[in-house]
Every structure is written in C-alpha cells, then in structure tokens.
C-alpha cells in the first residue's frame, strides 16, 4: 500500500491510499459521510488489485486529510479535490466509485470538470440531493433520528449517535474489532465537518440527464439508510445506467457481500 498527499481545492492536503496493478485501469473510491479510505479494505485487499490500479481518497474533513473549519459549502472545492487526485497521481481515465455522500462528490466533479477525464461512474447506495424534502424522503427514519447527535460537540452524545449509525450500515453486524475500528475513524471527523456536509443544499436533477459515460448503480437491497427506491430515480435520470441490487446487503454492500460487489465492478470496468 502506498500513501500520497495531494494538494486539493483551496490548497488543503488530501490523503490518498493506493494499491494494485499500476498498469491497470484505475478505480478511484470515494467514501461516504464520516468515513475514510479504510471503508474500502475489502476492495483494496481483494483480487481487484491484480488487474486494476486501486485508489481510495480521504475526503476533505475526513481520515488523514485536512479538516478546516469552513471549507465544505462550495461545490467547486469538492470538484477540485477529485480533479487534483486525478491530475496529481496521473490517473488515466479512472472509474469513479462513490458511496453514499460520495455520489454527491462525484456530481460536484462532473458539474465543474465535465466527464471527459473519466472512464465511467459507479454509484454505491448514493445520494444526489441535499437540503430539501425530496432529499430527506429517500432517507430512513431511524437514520434521520440520529442526525442531531452527529453534530453535537458533546463526546458522549456524538459517540451514541455514531455507535448506533454504524450497525445500520450493514445487513450482518461486523465483528467487534471491525466496529471499533470503524468507530475510531468516524469519531476522527470533527462535528463541524459532519454538520457542514449536511448543511449543503443542492439538487443534481439537471445534471444527471447530461451524463453520457457508462454508469453502474449498485445498491444493497436491505439498505435502511438510503432507501433502495432511489435506484429508480437514478435510472430515470441516467437511462443508460446499469443497476445491481445486492440481496442480503445493507448500506455498505461492498462490505456485506464483497464478492458480488467486486465481481460486478470488475465486469463493468472490463467493458470500458
């Protein structure tokens, strides 16, 4: 595993992990809300690495990337982050795979940089809207009930919310060791970052129909955080998209059923 520092939007430092075949088609994984590159361990440590150049970035405010106080509301900053990773690490037409909030970040990139620099897109239980009734309508009520605690500066309240959130991501509860690791990198994200991510207000309904690159929409059939019904919304916006519903998987299908997830991603990339 290699680790890179990349200068992102506004000059902040972004951390990127890399493994795999340096001559293979690159895949850039973009994690979700309050996560980090370690979320993708079942991809980075899989047979995908035999054929593909695999990279996982820590979004601004997350993991080992910088965590400024006020640098999350501008769509172009997010776009610049992804563009900087692609350019600085000389990624040749990567596939962008975005989990949950990572779907928003991919669309930030497409809005400002276009799709000429990428090979394809994977939405993984992804969202595309924030700050509206339509955005909230696709989120589970139990998850929404935890949101105020995500923003709390009280450590015990924050831990309670994050501790309840993590098991919701999975159809099968991870081991205690895995959950403690996940809780650790979730807690490392400051409350001001979590609040800033959810304070954005945006819709990408205008952008989705403009996407021409191939898209794979992957979703866990048992996702209680982002309702599986969102897949039909995404397909309506991007008619050429393929979809992959993974049975017995929750909000993190790449963890719940890594074999099915990795196999479909491999087949998708092979055609590009």
Characteristic terms for this protein:
272 residues; two-stranded antiparallel sheet; globular; 12 helices; Rossmann fold; 8-stranded mixed β-sheet; alpha/beta; 10 strands
Can you give a write-up of this model?
There is one protein chain. Helix content is 40%, strand content 19%. It is of the alpha/beta class and 272 residues long. The protein has an eight-stranded mixed sheet, with helices on both faces. A two-stranded antiparallel sheet has the order 7-8. α10 links the parallel β9 and β10. α3 crosses α4.
Write a brief structural summary.
The chain has one domain: 3-Layer(aba) Sandwich (Rossmann fold). Helix content is 40%, strand content 19%. The chain is built from 12 helices and 10 strands.
What is the CATH topology descriptor? Answer: Rossmann fold
Main sheet strand line-up: 1-2-4-3-5-6-9-10
| Classification by helices and strands | alpha/beta
Proportion of residues in β-strands? 15-25%
The low-confidence runs, each spanning 5 or more residues with pLDDT under 50, are none
Q: End-to-end span in angstroms?
A: 26 Å
Q: How many independent structural domains?
A: 1
Helix content: 40-55%
CATH-assigned homologous superfamily:
Alpha/Beta hydrolase fold, catalytic domain
The CATH architecture name reads 3-Layer(aba) Sandwich
Largest sheet: 8 strands, mixed
pLDDT averaged residue by residue? 97
Taking all Cα atoms into account, the compactness measure Rg is: 17 Å
Counted beta strands: 10
Helix and strand succession?
Answer: EEEHHEHEHEEHHHHHEEHEHH
Q: Helical element count?
A: 12
The level 1 CATH classification is Alpha Beta
Shape: globular
């Amino acid at each position: 595993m290699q680790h890179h520092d990349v200068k992102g939007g506004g000059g902040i430092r972004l951390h990127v992990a890399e493994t795999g075949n340096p001559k293979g088609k690159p895949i850039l994984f973009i994690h979700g809300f309050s996560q980090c590159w370690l979320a993708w361990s079942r991809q980075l440590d899989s047979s995908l690495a035999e054929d593909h150049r695999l990279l996982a970035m820590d979004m601004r405010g997350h993991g080992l990337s910088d965590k400024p106080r006020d640098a999350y509301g501008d769509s172009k900053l997010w776009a610049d982050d992804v563009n900087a990773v692609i350019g600085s690490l000389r990624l040749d037409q990567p596939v962008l795979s975005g989990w949950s909030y990572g779907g928003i970040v991919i669309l930030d990139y497409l809005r400002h940089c276009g799709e000429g620099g990428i090979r394809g897109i994977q939405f993984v239980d992804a969202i595309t809207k924030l700050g509206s009734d339509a955005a909230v309508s696709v989120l589970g009520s139990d998850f929404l009930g935890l949101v105020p605690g995500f923003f709390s500066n009280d450590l015990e309240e924050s831990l309670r919310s994050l501790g309840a959130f993590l098991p919701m991501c999975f159809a099968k509860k991870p081991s205690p060791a895995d959950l403690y690791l996940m809780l650790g990198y979730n807690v490392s994200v400051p409350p001001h970052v979590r609040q800033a991510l959810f304070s954005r207000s945006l819709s990408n309904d205008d952008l989705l129909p403009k996407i021409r690159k191939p898209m794979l929409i992957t979703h866990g059939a048992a996702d209680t955080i982002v309702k599986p019904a969102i897949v039909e919304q995404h397909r309506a916006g991007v008619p050429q998209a393929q979809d992959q519903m993974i049975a017995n998987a929750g909000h993190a299908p790449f963890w719940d059923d890594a074999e099915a997830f990795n196999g479909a991603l491999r087949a998708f990339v092979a055609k590009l």
